[in-house]
Design brief:
Layout: E1 6-12, E2 17-24, H1 26-34, H2 39-56, E3 63-71, E4 75-83, E5 87-94, E6 110-118, E7 124-129, H3 135-147, E8 151-158, E9 161-169, H4 186-194, H5 199-204, H6 207-215, E10 220-227, E11 229-230, H7 236-246, H8 248-258, E12 261-264, E13 271-274, H9 276-282, H10 284-290
Parallel strand pairs: 5-11
Antiparallel strand pairs: 1-2, 1-10, 2-9, 3-4, 3-6, 4-5, 6-7, 8-9, 12-13
């Protein structure tokens, strides 16, 4: 059985190469019990969730990393988010006018948006063209163009299970700086070996078996696994912020017409409602002027 719902790092002695392995099982079940998608859409969203987890291990931020694919195909937008503590969520938006059975799910034009939103500091966003509707190739292109880091990504999916592997060539690693010369041929050799991985192996072998299968002649260090799980970051407080951005007039109009403001989280389906009292709390000055805060 593969190592499911974890993110696990590995490195190679005397090289400038690091790797990550991700497996998802229960996480996907939790995502798809809340959103019912056709199987091809599940496959694409699952791969994007794996890719987001892999990328999160390459950046040092406390916050949220998200991947969003936008296209002119049957899937207009698909989003995967992960926090630094391994909480994942995802969603897909489909074009009702297009059939998922006709050609590529992502059409012939699209882009992949990588967003890093730290709890402190500035938000970063990078955009790369979607290569052949392929998430892995597009992300490799992003690292090549924007980060100038050699990066290879392998993604796999079958019903209910998804997995991925990332290899990345870095400028330097600690053990190489200790007077040990790095292997100059390591990157080409390690990526060539990784290209021999089969989809069923990536999905179903435990991580240590995957590494033994690919790299039994290399000196590999496998580190402790980080657990991954579905957990939505929505809250009434976050929706309150969105309502304040909407403005008092629009919020009060909905209250007057419907008695309360109703909002559902698109990711998890959680229902939220805001009463007149809530709106008064969000807009105390405006409510007082309108006389709404008096009842």
């Amino acid at each position: 059985m593969a190592t499911k719902d974890t993110l696990q790092r590995f490195t190679f002695d005397h090289t400038h190469v690091r790797g990550e392995l991700v497996g998802l099982h229960k996480t996907l079940s939790d995502v798809f019990t809340r959103q019912d998608y056709p199987e091809p859409v599940k496959a694409l969203l699952s791969e994007l969730l794996v890719a987001a987890s892999l990328l999160s291990a390459t950046v040092k931020i406390k916050g949220v990393l998200s991947l969003q694919v936008q296209s002119n195909g049957p899937i207009r937008a698909i989003v995967a988010e992960t926090s630094n503590d391994g909480h994942l969520r995802g969603i897909a938006r489909m074009d009702p006018e297009q059939s998922i059975d006709n050609g590529s799910l992502l059409g012939d034009q699209g882009q992949l948006v990588i967003t890093m939103d730290p709890e402190k500091g500035r938000r970063y966003q990078g955009v790369v063209a979607l290569e052949e509707g392929n998430i892995a190739k597009s992300l490799e292109g992003y690292f090549r163009q924007s980060e100038q880091l050699g990066t290879r990504i392998w993604l796999g999916y079958e019903e209910g299970v998804a997995a991925g592997m990332l290899l990345q060539e870095l400028p330097e690693l600690g053990e190489v700086q200790q007077g040990i010369e790095a292997d100059p041929d390591a990157w080409g050799r390690l990526t060539h070996l990784a290209d021999t991985i089969r989809n069923d192996e990536l999905l179903h072998l435990p991580n240590d078996d995957i590494l033994h299968r690919l790299y039994h002649e290399e000196k590999v260090r496998l580190y402790d696994a980080q657990p991954l799980k579905f957990q939505c970051s929505c809250s009434k407080e976050r929706l309150s912020v969105a309502l304040t951005q909407l403005g008092y007039a629009e919020c009060q109009e909905v209250i007057d017409e419907q008695g309360k403001i109703r909002a559902d989280c698109q990711f998890c389906g959680q229902h939220y409602s805001f009463t007149q009292s809530d709106v008064n709390g969000l807009f105390p000055l405006e409510s007082a002027k309108a006389g709404k805060g008096l009842h």
